[in-house]
């Protein structure tokens, strides 16, 4: 819903000078939450696994936290990419530096 509203807002504000037209790609949020649902389902089915119980007792809390985060970090861009590209987070951009390629030919091989 937020992506749709942001896309409509940007479409209404778009002019040739500002070039803020944004075409959202729907489905990435659903894939992100489907993956998280899969991880939670696997956690439910593997809860009594003796190896995982042993690891839960032996590993320090920061390592366990890192392992949990590593299940989602590789796909976190599925959730954040649309917000960044739509300009939804522009008000907060001063707090989150973004690397922008200034050379238009740099990405071409």
Could you give the topology of this structure?
Elements lengths: L1 H12 L14 H18 L4 H9 L2 H9 L7 H10 L23
Report on this structure.
53% of the residues lie in helices and 0% in strands. It has helices at 2-13, 28-45, 50-58, 61-69, 77-86. The protein has five helices and no strands. With 109 residues, the protein is mostly helical. It starts with a helix and ends in a 23-residue tail after the last helix. The longest helix has 18 residues, at 28-45.
Give a summary of the structure in a few sentences.
With 109 residues, this protein is an all-alpha fold. The chain contains 5 helices and no strands.
Biggest β-sheet strands, sense, barrel: none
Report mean pLDDT, rounded to a whole number: 76
What's the count of strands?
0
Order of helices and strands: HHHHH
Q: Give start-end ranges of low-pLDDT stretches.
A: none
- The general outline is elongated
Rg of Cα set: 20 Å
| DSSP summary: helix tally | 5
What share of residues are in beta strands? under 5%
* Helix percentage: 40-55%
Structural class: mainly alpha
How far the N terminus sits from the C terminus, by CA atoms, comes to 37 Å
